[in-house]
Fold this sequence. Notes:
Layout: E1 4-6, E2 28-34, E3 48-52, E4 55-60, E5 72-79, E6 82-89, E7 103-107, E8 110-115, H1 118-121, E9 124-131, E10 134-141, E11 152-159, E12 162-167, E13 179-186, E14 189-196, E15 210-214, E16 217-222, E17 234-240, E18 245-251, E19 262-269, E20 272-277, E21 289-296, E22 299-306, E23 317-324, E24 327-332, E25 344-351, E26 354-361, E27 372-379, E28 382-387, E29 399-405, E30 423-425, E31 428-430, E32 434-435, E33 450-451, E34 456-458, E35 469-471, H2 479-502
Amino acid sequence: MKRSVTLSSLSLGMILLFSPNTALAEGAAEQSKLIAGDPNADDRFGSSVALASDIALVGSPLDDERATDAGAVYVFRRINEKWTQQAKLTASDAYIGDRFGRSIAISGNLALIGAPLKNDGAGVVYLFERTNTVWTEKARIAASDARAGHEFGISVAIDRDTILIGATFHNHAGDDTGMAYVFVREDDTVLEQSRLMAEDATAESEFGRSVAIEGRLALVGAPGSGENRTMAGSAYLFESDGDSWRQVAKLTPEDSEAGNDFGYAVAIDQRTALVGSFHDSQEKPSAGAAYLFAEGGSKWVQQDKLVVRDAKADDHFGYALSLRAGAAVIGAQLNDHMGDSAGAAFLFVKNREGWQERSRITADDGSDFDNLGGSVAIDENTLLIGAHLHSSAANGAGAAYVYLFERLEGDACESSQQCAQGLCVNGYCCRRNCQENDASWPTVPEDAGRSESDAEVCAPADENNGCGCHLIGSSSISRTGAWYFIALMVVIAISRLRRKLTI
């Protein structure tokens, strides 16, 4: 059965507007605070979030509109820098305690919403599709071997027509072993393609607690795994050949320790994996950490370990995380900077020197026990961060916050639109005044460009440089760009000399 939700032209939510004069500097600026248009106590709005361009999804798994704790998901859209609630999604077969909205994911016009406690905890996932201003429930997805208590849908991910769903309490190799399922969408039909299991599956691994997918790569967290059920944790990478999936790597941190819950949150982007370990205690007890892995030859290797500069005990940094185009937002929902367990999130950005902590993000109206950072999402230069216990609208009703950040010169990028200076060269942001074929200067080759001053040139990166804009005389100047510039200066000098001799 299909249900349609027509989007109202009126705002159903409460919005705080972003001032265009707000300076982003090297941090992140709060653009908007999102609250449900019909807030109620203990709805837990903000328990899950997802973001795709100008569309934000916010889960409210204890919403009572259809039935007690049946759950709902709110859709917000950004137009001219203003966010407006445009729909409230509920399941066509909503029932008491389903927790619809416990997990959410978005890809293009498709939204995937988990209800892990439906049918006595067997779990169901719903697929919605947006057409213009209407969201329609297109499919109701269940595991072929569904059993009560498996909690299918506790985690979800989607990339175009490929869907990945975790069932963390599946018991195929003992209690709470866990499993993940791959589905593919063909028109309005969703078909189960594969079941993913760890090659070394053991009881209480909680495989499937977190999932992420990018193209033909799937990443599944198993925070309960470890020798003798130590909950050190691990994450597993699977790759598809188009028809079947096989495990290609098991990720564990170099400093793995019992009880770290490595794998509780996972993300993958540009074949780089980010894995949270919110009970990591290297800095302070349960301060938390996040680890980056990338392909190194024929295997995946740890690339970096991210920790907070002023880490505090029990921050739970790494409880939630999201990764996109060389930037990561990582939640620390029990951080005390704005109050007891008010929560925070941290922005890390990759540049030529590696991954750098750019900003600690807190809510302007943050207060005790908000748990900001319990859910996070990133897309382009926008961050969406949930605070599911925030109480400004009603006690425990929840909220979500939108932030903007800038990618500065030397920061990683995918497109020029992401860069503050408006230019992305070879994967890194460069200065805007590196212009091609400036009318006031002699013509320059397209891959070299030319600045408005004599101090720099724009050139492709080489093995010594990440960014395409380099200062003349600097040790970091691109050899290709330097030779273009030097040759150009020689031509100009000869031309001027000839004119003088002619005169």
